[in-house]
Each structure stands twice: as structure tokens, then as C-alpha cells.
Amino acid sequence: MTNWRGIALLLALALGACMAPAQPERGAVGVSAPDEQTVYVIRHLQKAQGDDPVLTSEGAANAQVLASILEDANITGIYSTPTRRTMQTGAPLAGRIGVEITPYDPRNPDALVAAVRAGDGSVLVVGHSNTVGDLITRFGGNAAPELTEQDYGTLFVVAADGTVSEIEVE
Questions:
Q1: Residue 114 and residue 136: Cα distance in Å, rounded?
Q2: pTM of the model
């Protein structure tokens, strides 16, 4: 009987070694492979009026939703223009995952792309209605949207292969 137990144990170990490793659980946005970089691009969320406005209460609530969507997406960097509305859009995620927001100059998108590409892992980039489409293209996206002043809450996911998908943040 002892020989059968030993053989059964060896067979179980051999079978286990042949099985594929468990894949990470995929959330609403998926999890990138370690050697792939996904870039998430969003226009700041709903803003108040005025010069350098803050987010409205709706925008602040949607920033929390954005953080919930991305908290398990292996984000290693958050980039935002230095305006209050863009920084406030990324702040809840930054707090949840313990990553500081890195400001970037929207007039120098090449520097942003170089900084993102030099890093490891996936990133969130928060921009404006007149910069999001260009950023998606610069990050290799094969479809760039045109946003208006009324467009809020669409998270664009630029995969390593250039496909662009959209997630509504509400």
C-alpha cells in the first residue's frame, strides 16, 4: 500500500507541475502583463467655473469611482497637468495606491511620453479636452477621440498593441 501512496503523490506533483500558473484576477479594467504597459487617459472630471476651478461635487464623486475602477490595475504612476481639477481627478487613486501625482506640462507632450515610457508598469494620465486625443495617439493608440467642453467621464485605455477601449466613469 505504501508504494501506491508514493506513486499517487508523485503523479499529483507531476500533474501540478504541468498545469498553467494561476492568472491574476482581472477587475473592471484588466491587469497588464508585467512586460506590457497600459496607459489610461482621462480628461479631468466635472469642474466648477472660473480660473483654475476645482471639481464639482459630481466630479469629486466620479474621481472616487475612477479610483475604484483603477485601484487593482497595477498603476505605478499618475501624471497630471498642474491644474487643480486634473490633480483632484487623480488624487483619490493616488491616495488609495500610495503613488504621488507627477505634474507634466501639457505644452510638452513628448516629455510626458518619454517619462511614461521610461517607467515600468501602467499609468494614469489626466489631461484636458484639447489634449486627450493627441495623448492617446502619442501613446500608440489607433483611435483618437475628439472631446468637447461637455465631455466628461470617459476613461480611455490604450493597450500595448494600440487598441483603445473606453470605460465610462459614473
A1: 14
A2: 0.81
Span 121-170, pLDDT tens digits: 999 999 999 999 999 999 999 888 999 999 999 999 999 999 999 999 98
Cβ-proximal residues to 157 (8 Å cutoff; 6+ apart), any chain: 29, 38, 39, 40, 164, 165, 166, 167
Cell triple for 22: 494561476
Selection from 126, 127, 164, 162 nearest residue 145 by Cα: 164
Exposure string for 105-135, b = 16+ CB within 10 A, e = fewer? ebeebeebbeebeeeebbbbbbbbbebbbeb
DSSP tally for the chain: helices H, then strands E = 5, 6
User: What are 3-28's pLDDT values in tens digits?
Assistant: 444 444 444 434 343 333 333 333 34
Calculate the alpha carbon distances from 60 to 89, 119, 152 in Å.
7, 28, 12
CA angle 129–133–139, rounded 5-degree value: 130
CA-CA distance, 108 to 96, in Å (whole number)? 28
Identify the pLDDT of residue 13: 39
Q: Torsions phi, psi of 126, nearest 5?
A: -110, 120
